[in-house]
Amino acid sequence: MEVRYSPDQNGFKKMTTGELRNSLLIDCLFQVNEIPMVYSDIDRSITGSAVPSGKRLKLTAAKKEMAAEYFCERREIGIINIGGKGSVFIDGKEYVMENKDGLYIGRGNKEIEFESSLKDAPAKFYFVSYPAHKEYPVKQIKFTEATERKLGSTADANKRIIHQYIHPGTMPTCQIVMGLTELEEGSVWNTMPAHTHQRRSEVYMYFNIRPESFVVHLNGEPSETRHIIIRNEQAVLSTSWSLHAGCGTQNYSFIWAMGGENQVFDDMDNIPMADMR
Q1: Fewer beta carbons within 10 Å, N or C terminal of the chain?
Q2: What is the DSSP string of 112-161?
Q3: Cα(132)–Cα(93) distance, rounded to whole angstroms?
């Protein structure tokens, strides 16, 4: 497990492109038969993936970083599968997950394993975890069961559908909120006007991006923004003080996950476009 420490506002302004990427970009995901993870001091999130091919992968706790006997001893997890059909086994119970299905795992579940239905078309399980103070039951969320919100417009190049999987409208959790946003063809902005939310941090994972394409992910303070180039199936960490928005060279999808003080999706501080620098 890799450990990351976030910059403050003053340190952020002085960082080079390489330093920004090393601090905030997660580009180690979706390795076959591995479970790469990044532990961040931003709300103590853990971001990771599992791509099982011909074998079952077990999620274990990194004892030095987590000081836990098993991963969910004091944590909850949100999972979305962006690959082929697969299964997540939780204490022996199987949850079959098709492409774009989601799963919530509450605190106290001891054994978590990942498996693909087909070796040559493996599942791609993406997960984000935050600390949890209470046990809540496991809940599977099929893609068709996610709460759908249509936002934006073609004229503003940000017409998109937000699929809310893990949020107060579907289930109780300690702090994690998670969903998937899909941009329609011809739209490239994932959110604009941009926003911050001081009460929680966020992780974006971009996918469905062609090899020759990328997303320019904006971060930093509104008066002094920076950017990171994001490729397919890479994630980026956002601190509570930083805005986060992205513009691609094509339409794309991204999974967002948040943790912090509250779970109200619309609790955000929008930034007037005239104030962006």
Answers
A1: C
A2: EEEEES-TTS---EEEEEEE-SS----EEE-GGGSEEEEE--TTTT--EE
A3: 22
Q: Tell me the two tokens of residue 142.
A: 């099929």
The strand pairing partners of 206, in sequence order, are 234, 254
Q: What's the rounded Cα separation, in Å, for the pair 63 and 61?
A: 6
Range of the domain at 175: 2-275
Give yes or no for residue 228 having a pLDDT over 70.
yes
Calculate the average pLDDT of the chain.
Answer: 93
**Amino acid 264: pLDDT:** 67
pLDDT higher than threshold 90 for residue 105: yes
pLDDT digits 0-9 by tens, 129-139: 999 999 999 99
Rounded to whole angstroms, the Cα distance separating 113 from 76 reads 15
225 is written with which tokens? 């923004």
Mean pLDDT for 222-228 is 92
Q: Structurally, how many domains does the chain consist of? A: 1
Contact (Cβ atoms closer than 8 angstroms) between residue 164 and residue 116: no
Phi, psi of 208 (to 5 degrees): 60, 40
pTM of the prediction? 0.95
CATH of the domain at 187: 2.60.120.10
Pull the structure tokens for residue 79.
Answer: 């999972």
User: Scanning the structure block, which residue is given the tokens 């809940």?
Assistant: 139
Which phi and psi angles does 84 have, rounded to 5°? -75, 180
